[in-house]
Amino acid sequence: MPPAPAGNTNPAMHAILARHAARLTPRYTSYPTAPHFQADFPEATYRAWLAATDPAAPVSLYLHVPYCARMCWYCGCNMKLAARYEPVAAYVETLLREIDLVAEALPGRLAAGHLHWGGGTPTALAPGDLARVMHRLEERFAVPADAERAIESDPRTLSDAMIETIGRLGFTRASFGVQEFDPAVQAAINRIQPPEMVARAVGGLRAAGVAGINFDLIYGLPHQTTRMLEETIRISAELGADRVALFGYAHVPWVAPNQRMIPADALPGPEARAEQAAAAAEALERAGYVAIGIDHYARPHDPLAEAARTGRLRRNFQGYTTDTAETLIGLGVTAIGRTPAGYVQNIAETGAWGRAVAAGHLPVARGRALAGDDRLRAHVIERLMCDGRVDCAAAARRFGAAEDWATEPLSALAPLAAEGAIAIHGGHVALAPWARPLARVAAAAFDRYLGSGGGRHAASV
Questions:
Q1: What is the C-alpha to C-alpha distance for residues 379 and 400, in angstroms, rounded to an integer?
Q2: Where are the domains of the chain?
Q3: Residues 6+ apart with CB under 8 A from 146
Q4: In percent, how much of the chain has pLDDT > 70?
Q5: CATH top-level class of 1-26+372-449
Q6: CB 32 within 8 A of CB 374
Q7: What is the pTM of this model?
Q8: Which of 120, 210, 238, 311 would disulfide-bridge 205, Cβ 3.0–4.6 Å?
């Protein structure tokens, strides 16, 4: 069952949230996390993992398109400005070849139940090129009629022709990076998109047959106030978003140089961020959304809400998901994949990625084979991130570990327990409803690699 609403916190609870908000922790979309992947990961190992895939089990597909028409200053993604279409067209050709290489490494034409396009801006492709890649996927994989086909888009550049193509190709869900509707904040992050522009994009996709619409919102942006965020949520609900992902802005200019355009002194501090997060959670729930994990919200009828109610919610590199496939195949630069044996990540530089594919190589750069108690800790961390609670003793039995394996992480959680943010009874751990935003802090106690080098993380709230 999902945690109860995080709203209605009293001042003492707000103070606790604010005290932990600035702690730097991973987002735990994988475990081990990406900073602990091995460089120069052997292509042969990845080929062996793909060859060992269960041909009867469905896989999921993720395609990364790094190109955008405009630069957003808050963005931390791997992206490139597409001033001309020629590099994008070349990228499409390489992506088609990579699909063939991966398909040839698999034990057959596998079923793909979830297909997700991310970026960057996938709709930076020409409509015809998007159709070509989708058709190649359907040639190489069995994509059933009820598969989820999701795509991220930018309402500032979404054309009528692309809307028609998305509908014709059977996409079931589209996501928009709304972030914030206040004009002053939009100017500060270099993303101007008034509500009318977003409404046009949503209406066009609905008319084309796309049933699910997701909005991404961000708190902690420059010059942003709680009142602004609440108004953005009101407009988002009015526009009919089925799901809302509410993220805290991660100011990491050492990773994303474009963020240097945002002055650090314009950003809300830890207490203001915690206040914005709590107020936004209350506003979303008042608008009829159900809280999912730490940062997602969905209408009660949405499949994501149903997965949370029934304990089937999962978490991967796209965030919270209904996808239960054990194998996720990543395609395109920087794309991360997962198999039952471990994780892989593609080459990050477009030219090197293209050269590897042209030479007939799977363009893997980094990876991590699961070893020791990684699967046990991954399970515990995922359940904390998804459900806000976990039974460590039951997890030990499931993975054949000693009953007392969690003694050290449970001791590390004692300060949170003393503050009332978490309850520990035997091996059972449960975050208090109001402390749901601290799930990353709780999960970090079970991360045996955290602090062992590699990676600077973002604020927990």
A1: 13
A2: 1-26+372-449, 33-328
A3: none
A4: 96
A5: mainly alpha
A6: yes
A7: 0.92
A8: 210
